[in-house]
Design brief:
Shape: globular
Structural class: mainly beta
Number of strands: 5
Strand content: 35-45%
Number of helices: 1
Strand order of the largest sheet: 2-5-4-1-3
Distance between the termini: 19 Å
Helix content: under 10%
Radius of gyration: 12 Å
């Protein structure tokens, strides 16, 4: 993905994780850290999802630090 900071294989700071993402529209590909709730498993993410509340399960990559100093997560795929 253009603009995505690749994961560091030595430190594993950024890695794929299960999460619930708060997002008004599912067209975005990156999210601020305050929109992400990390989960231990896909089942936990699916159980915590609330489409009516705009909270969707996903696999995300992150965190990465943006040039503005924000921490971002990138969408890998929706569950």
């Amino acid at each position: 993905m253009r603009g995505m900071v690749p994961p560091d294989p030595e430190t594993q700071v950024s890695q794929e994780r299960y999460a619930v993402v708060y997002v008004p529209r599912r067209s975005r590909k990156r999210f601020a850290a305050n929109c992400i709730t990390l989960c231990d498993s896909a089942e936990d993410a699916l159980a915590a999802a609330d489409p009516a509340g705009k909270r969707f399960p996903a696999i995300v990559l992150g965190p990465s630090r943006s040039s503005e100093g924000q921490y971002l997560y990138y969408l890998v795929r929706w569950l």
